[in-house]
């Protein structure tokens, strides 16, 4: 027989054994939920956290394994790329003159301008080269007079030289003397260091004994 709300309110906890089944089930359900909640915070929470961390670590290790496997599979291709890069670098280095060839290169730059009918007002290589680990850079201050067309042809001729020469800081203006055009620029050429220079630079970088 169903009980009304007042009868549920008058239930005595001391007489729980005599309670109707629905009331007993409700109390059992509440106690079960409380036990599960207490167990979660007391025992299971740390285990769940550890399990989550272990799962994440496992996924990270799988990703690392797959990445290393992919690299291993492509190892031959990487080696071939390295060979090609070294060959390309070797070809580029061949375009850099030796120290003994610098005078000839400077003459070629000068002749490129003269051949286009340009008049040199300034052709001044820097007094010192700028050296790096493998090469030396020589800036050359250039000032020539002529026409726009001649300037363009001169720049084209410089680009087609067998050695690497870059024209930078180009400035074109009108001459105050005769109204003609004047181009000022910095021509940068490069050469690779000989073994003696490389050895000297390495010795300079080594710390002195006792320091």
UniProtKB/TrEMBL annotation:
Keywords: Membrane, Transmembrane, Transmembrane helix
UniProt key word Transmembrane: yes
Residues making up the signal peptide according to the UniProt record: none
Chain coiled-coil ranges: none
Gene3D superfamilies the record matches: 3.30.70.60, Helix hairpin bin
Listed transmembrane segments: 21-44
Cited Pfam families: PilO
PANTHER family: FIMBRIAL ASSEMBLY PROTEIN PILO-LIKE PROTEIN-RELATED, TYPE IV PILUS INNER MEMBRANE COMPONENT PILO
Protein's name in the database: Type 4a pilus biogenesis protein PilO
Species in which this protein is naturally found: Leeia speluncae
